[in-house]
Amino acid sequence: MKLIDYVRKVSLTDFGKPFKHNAHWNKRLKTTGGRFFPKDGHLDFNPQLLEKHGEAVFRKIVRHELCHYHLYYAGLGYQHKDKAFKELLAQVDGLRYAPVSQTNQANYHYSCQKCGQDYQRKRRINLTKYVCGKCRGKLIEKNRS
Questions:
Q1: Model pTM?
Q2: Is 65 among the residues known to form the active site?
Q3: Which residues of the chain fall below pLDDT 70?
Q4: Is 115 exposed, middle or buried (0-12, 13-18, 19+ CB in 10 A)?
């Protein structure tokens, strides 16, 4: 099934309203499930979330973006902070936040030789320059994930 057909189907079944614009896959999206563009009404979706989390989670992401879409064209508050958006999202059981992917998690793990304090970092740290913030002991790198 094509993305545009899927979005139209979800719009009709979950909202009872038609989706009249375009929907696209956007491989450059990394931390978000999708985006709504008020200027021309199209939606972008992250294809990696469908692959990693399955169709059930992806449907909730589509609902989230369709909440933005339908509220905008109804003239109501369509932003995350608006009450109308929060209420509609709860009614249709959409996701508030995109699921966290592995790329957003720490890549480097360190521990203190003295006190055993663990540290997780996205970036590598210089072990000759930095020490444990708890006891000033020497840090060692644990296995990378």
A1: 0.71
A2: yes
A3: 1, 101-105, 144-145
A4: exposed
